[in-house]
């Protein structure tokens, strides 16, 4: 029985020493092990839509006549794009006025001009060259982001209308607070 007690005590002592040893290693920390992984990744990037950015201009002797002409041109463009699964987004509209001092008889350019900037989105598999040619035939005469394309003529923008400003529903009717030191201004 006495041998059994000594063996149990030795076993408890060895276990205690092992526990102290493992606790000591945990406190001092083991050296960090670094693992490296290597691999490759590939992604295929394709456009979702084909985009034509440009504008349409219509001129007349009176502003209302110019707007009517422009609306007719836009209706033709919209119909053609709809038939080709495209979408027409109207961006800003600019009204210009020629500011030349005297009208010469050979000058056939009307004094008022309305320019509508637009963006046509089409499926990527659409026949873009044919569509672009037809859009030009229907009146697309400005290309890129600058639709004024004055080309040296004396045209001044009179009104710029931005569609996104008109549709904003987050405007507040509260007046902005006045800066300090400016009473009643």
Descriptors for this entry?
5 strands, 34% helix, 5-stranded antiparallel β-sheet
Structure description:
The protein contains 4 helices and 5 strands, in the order H-E-H-E-E-H-E-E-H. The longest helix is centred in the first third of the chain and has 27 residues. A 5-stranded antiparallel beta sheet has the order 4-1-3-2-5. The C terminus is likely disordered. The protein is rod-shaped, with a radius of gyration of 38 Å. The chain is α+β, with helices and mostly antiparallel strands and 185 residues long.
Mean pLDDT, to the nearest integer, reads 75
Helix content: 25-40%
Total count of helical runs of at least 4 residues? 4
Beta-strand content: 25-35%
Q: Main sheet? A: 5 strands, antiparallel
Helix-strand blueprint:
Blueprint: H1 2-28, E1 49-60, H2 63-83, E2 87-98, E3 112-123, H3 128-137, E4 140-143, E5 155-161, H4 163-166
Antiparallel strand pairs: 1-3, 1-4, 2-3, 2-5
Summarize the structure.
By secondary structure, the chain is α+β, with helices and mostly antiparallel strands.
């Amino acid at each position: 029985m006495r041998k059994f007690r000594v063996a149990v005590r030795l076993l408890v002592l060895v276990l205690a020493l092992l526990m102290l040893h493992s606790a000591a290693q945990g406190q001092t920390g083991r050296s960090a092990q670094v693992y490296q992984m290597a691999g490759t990744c590939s992604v295929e990037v394709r456009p979702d839509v084909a985009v034509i950015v440009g504008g349409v201009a219509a001129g007349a002797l009176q502003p209302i006549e110019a707007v009517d002409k422009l609306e007719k041109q836009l209706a033709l463009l919209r119909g053609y794009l709809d038939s080709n699964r495209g979408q027409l987004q109207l961006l800003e509209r600019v009204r210009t006025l020629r500011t030349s001092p005297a009208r010469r008889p050979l000058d056939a350019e009307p004094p008022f001009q309305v320019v509508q900037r637009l963006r046509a989105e089409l499926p990527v598999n659409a026949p873009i060259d044919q569509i672009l040619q037809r859009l030009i035939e229907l009146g697309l005469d400005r290309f890129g982001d600058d639709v004024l394309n004055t080309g040296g003529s004396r045209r001044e923008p009179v009104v710029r209308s931005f569609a996104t400003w008109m549709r904003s529903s987050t405007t507040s009717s509260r007046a902005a607070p006045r800066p300090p030191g400016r009473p009643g201004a």
